[in-house]
């Protein structure tokens, strides 16, 4: 699917019958070849179709009297059906759990470990929360089967709040929440749409509150960016608000077929205003793009062009917000859906299916997917050889290793007074003169080692023997006894 062209059709609800078999979503993407397959799968087609559908609904509309309606945050004219209100209440319940799990006050370098406790509590309560806040015909669907529909909903919803193991959050988790909403759409949870009114309710009534929840999680538990490109990435955590926020400022249309590729809404701010803190503070109250920019201002300091290089470059686009919106759609396809580190954890079940889309064109391998390890090139596990035994090897040996001294070099250095020198070979002679090794004064008597508990003092010389001092060869310089002339 061409990510630069909006889809003229919507994601179709699944004809769920008694014969439909739900599946627990599982990981399918393991290498670069799997990413290539994913880009031609039915799941990818459904995801992009849903994004195009939501994006088109956020573009301003031309009214019959000639006026233009721009969709804003907290817009009273945006209809929120019952299911949108219920999912928003579900997010409020998850938000309230944060109050039950305050951040750990201990020193830390990365994410706060209390996030794991919050995540565990969500896992424990999520099934009951879905039963409470979703229509019974959705939450109980397939309850008599081996795998109910709720199993697929839980997998995507729980996977949308970050990683409790790595204490991070990124666009892959955001994608999981989009899939959760896509599952609800496929299961028929939303009423029939009319000129995008249901989709606008989803974006402004569910996705924006979800983003607010995520921002609170990031600030409360200092979640790390997942797979961030640093200053060379669009945003450390999110992508969708830039897609839908740029659509809010695009030129007005009468229907999705009228979408243009350039221009802006008459009262839209200049894209360059993202670098002006005062303009961001004003616009973040009504627009998702500037709301996301405002969060960057909340958590980062310094010049905008320095810490948000890509967004700063985008602010220089002269062709208007429609051009930016088109670029965001293409960038989402390239930087999120086509990147192995992002989509590798995305699971596939019966609603987002790991099957080839018959209508999809052949997808060529990108430089990124080609650089990922494939199953065919993954190294096999090598059996490690046993650790070598240095005492049992018969390789290169020291010159004295063949003697009967147990492979040890001849003892010619400082030895303990009681060291035994009995062997089958002649003892090595000790050189005389100045090359004489340094020996203890009593070494010539070779006494036995001291008794247990005894002192290690030198034995006194016996009567009739030569003084030990006189037995020690002199090590004085030849001229040491000379006296200077008088």
From TrEMBL:
- Any one of the GO CC terms: protein phosphatase type 2A complex
Listed PANTHER family: SERINE/THREONINE-PROTEIN PHOSPHATASE 2A REGULATORY SUBUNIT B (PTHR10012), SERINE_THREONINE-PROTEIN PHOSPHATASE 2A ACTIVATOR 1 (PTHR10012:SF3)
What species was this sequence derived from?
A: Lophiostoma macrostomum CBS 122681
Tell me yes or no: is Cell division among this UniProt entry's keywords.
no
Region (Disordered), start-end ranges: 365-486
Q: Where is the composition biased (Low complexity)?
A: 407-429, 451-466
The parts of the chain that form a coiled coil are: none
The protein's UniProt keywords, in alphabetical order, are: Cytoplasm, Isomerase, Nucleus, Rotamase
Instruction: Specify the protein name.
Output: Serine/threonine-protein phosphatase 2A activator
